[in-house]
Amino acid sequence: MEAKQDKIESKGLKVKANRKNFSKRLWKQRELILLSIPFVIYILVFNYAPLAGWVIAFQNYRPGFSFFEQEWVGLANFRLLFADPAFLRVIRNTLAMGIINLSLGFFFSIGFAVLLNEVRSRHVKKVVQTVSYLPHFLSWIIVTGIILDVLSPETGIINQLLMSFNLIDRPINFLSDPKYFWWIVGFSNVWKSTGWGSIIYLSAMAAINDELYEAAEMDGANRIRKIWHITLPGIKPTIFILLLINIGGVLNAGFEVQYLLGNGLVQEVSQTIDIFVLKYGISLNNYSFATAAGIFNSFVSIILITSGNKLAKLAGEESLF
């Protein structure tokens, strides 16, 4: 009985000590905590407070009526959602474009960062970096205008090059053919985001010890060998962390580029979940149906990022949590 009492007392003392240490750590970091308060408030107001609106998905929402006057319908909106062939087609489009964007984005960002890291002239490196960052700061309105000009059947440079090399007999109207649309979106994202996406990989490469390259060079390794055995393994943790973060956004395949480049001829492959939500929520005033689609999007994103994190842990790689 006394031993049990001693255990309880020692446990209580440990809890008190932990609380005291925690309070000391908070006090030592009070400046950082004060600086973080505005950001916490921002996240609470703009990311968490709007979640209260999810309740609309379980109602037959009618604007102008109070919360208690709304008709509750349970999961009826979700049943209608998955019974709608248009929504299933939208899921297919969103997944396809999300996976294409993710794959191409990672491949080109890492490849560009590796190539830029091999440039020895600082002046050339800075110029190339600056030029590669510029598309990131252009709005999708401007980017889609450039895409329309480049792919134009009459004056587009792509058609002119293909015809000059005798690869095609007549110009292709790329934006009216559904089989090209996903890839156009994918490479548009690559052009806009590759330079910006390479920044974090270049930062990770800068942290790799130069002595490793010197030792490899003394052993007779060429540039390709050094990239394969030193550079890529050195940035592997960064690659895994960014991959896990981006996996959660696969269903956020985009809205602007699909909306601006889409037309009646490619409608079946151009619509994403975001466009679907806009169509039903704003154009057709079916707020409950649109909210149900938005909840599905968020739910799948949570499952993807949690599953990816679990697989990374099982594989012994870097994980988010």
Concise summary:
This protein has helices at residues 2-28, 30-48, 76-83, 85-117, 122-133, 140-150, 157-164, 178-206, 210-218, 223-234, 236-247, 256-261, 267-270, 273-283, 287-314; strands at 59-60, 71-72. With 321 residues, the protein is mainly alpha-helical.
Number of DSSP strand runs? 2
Number of H/I helices:
15
Radius of gyration based on Cα positions: 26 Å
Stretches where pLDDT is under 50 for at least 5 consecutive residues are none
Mean pLDDT: 86
Question: What is the CA-CA span between the terminal residues?
Answer: 41 Å
* Strand and helix order: HHEEHHHHHHHHHHHHH
| Strand residue percentage | under 5%
The biggest beta sheet is recorded as: 2 strands, antiparallel
Notes on the protein architecture:
This protein is mostly helical. 71% of the residues lie in helices and 1% in strands. The chain contains 15 helices and 2 strands. It has helices spanning 2-28, 30-48, 76-83, 85-117, 122-133, 140-150, 157-164, 178-206, 210-218, 223-234, 236-247, 256-261, 267-270, 273-283, 287-314, and strands spanning 59-60, 71-72. A two-stranded antiparallel sheet has the order 1-2. Helix 4 runs parallel beside helix 8. It starts with a helix and ends in a 7-residue tail after the last helix. The mean pLDDT is 86.
